[in-house]
Amino acid sequence: MTGRSGRTGKSGSQAGAGDLLELVRSGRAVTRGALQQATGLSRATVGQRLDRLFRAGWLREGAGGPVDSPLGGRPSITLEFDGSHAVVLAADLDTRHARAAVLSLTGEILAEHAGPLAVEDGPQVVLAELGRWFGELLTKAGHTGEEVCGIGLAVPGPVDSETGLVVQPPIMPGWDGHDLRGSLSRAFTEHTGAPAVPVLVDNDANLMAYGEQRTGHPDCTAFVLVKVSTGIGAGVIVDGAVYRGADGGAGDIGHIRVGADALCRCGAYGCLAAVASGGAVARRLTASGVPAASGSDVRDLLAAGHPEAAALAREAGRQVGDVLATVVTLLNPGVLMIAGDLAGTPFLTGVRELLYQRALPRSTAHLEVVTSRLGDRAGLVGAAALVVEHLYAPERAEERLSRMGV
């Protein structure tokens, strides 16, 4: 999880240890000489500020790199972000299942658990259970709660990123306005005995997109991920950052009206999610005599090659593809990724049929339409990356170093 924010850092005496860390993590300057050139700081000052990062355990020396001086000489020692000094906890909630993990600061999953957990049971029950999972996972991974630097949580609803509150979530009854950060922090402390740590919350499609773009498409400046499971949502990454809109509602394409008369869980009629989500396909299968309660059941049927499930998934893909033609024309992404329970060949075929038919040729000329690379782990990877980028951003890194007394 190296920084890719595009920040250039401060120059001269304004560049602190946090700015040097950002330059190293982003790969823009990984030797002492390169840091001097990037910041204008003297060799002694660079050394003093790097010493703070070494004492904190955040940096380490790597192998010899390129020669800094044009006159030649011995290769310079490279500097690396040391991802072993702490771990991150992450959880990804779906409507009926959840996944949690312990990850290194560089995104490696060290221990993982998935199991049934229904959001309709409410935040207190769900978050308390996540706290229990976290305690067990830390033990499994050989780490303690004191080594955790932060927690990331992905939820299937719109989130105000400033407050961490879920805002009027259509498929999360009882979660609107609940203090998720506080509840999950308390659950973590209760089950690990460790002090409270920062908790960051975001929409699941946003975090899936963040994880997928950073690990598989880092050079894509406009990236869109569409998650089609029990509901439908999209995450948009622009220049390496999540685009959330004015109050966290960006990407909520499941509630675009498509002219049908089906009742959506949000209370409106004709939403895309009401006719083309995994939940909608499950209802149609059940009505035809094939029991399916959710998008995950549809995924199992698709994996087994069930012909009716495949036909309905393809039709759902066509309906989503019709809407995505507008999304692609508006955003002009380089990558459109389909993820979630329905992200298989039948659904993807349907998306492509309508997308390329309805969108302008110029909008799709350089577009890659792909399926998820990280699969069920995308939300976990994105949630952990969000925590790392938050905690090691230059100004926050400076604050943390000061609190540590280094």
Alpha plus pi helix count = 14
Helical content band: 40-55%
Average residue-wise pLDDT = 92
- Taking pLDDT < 50 over at least 5 consecutive residues as the criterion, the unreliable ranges are 2-8
> Which structural class best describes the helix and strand composition?
alpha/beta
Largest sheet: 5 strands, mixed
Portion of residues in beta strands equals 15-25%
Q: Largest sheet, order of strands side by side? A: 5-4-3-6-9
Task: Note the gap between the termini.
Answer: 24 Å
**What is the CA-based Rg, rounded?**
23 Å
> Topology as H/E string?
HHHEEEEEHEEEHEHEEEHHHHEHHEHH
Which geometry do the CA atoms define?
globular
What is the number of beta strands? 14
Structure write-up:
With 406 residues, the protein is of the alpha/beta class. 42% of the residues lie in helices and 19% in strands. The protein is built from 14 helices and 14 strands. A hairpin with a 3-residue loop joins strand 3 (87-93) and strand 4. 47% of the residues are buried.
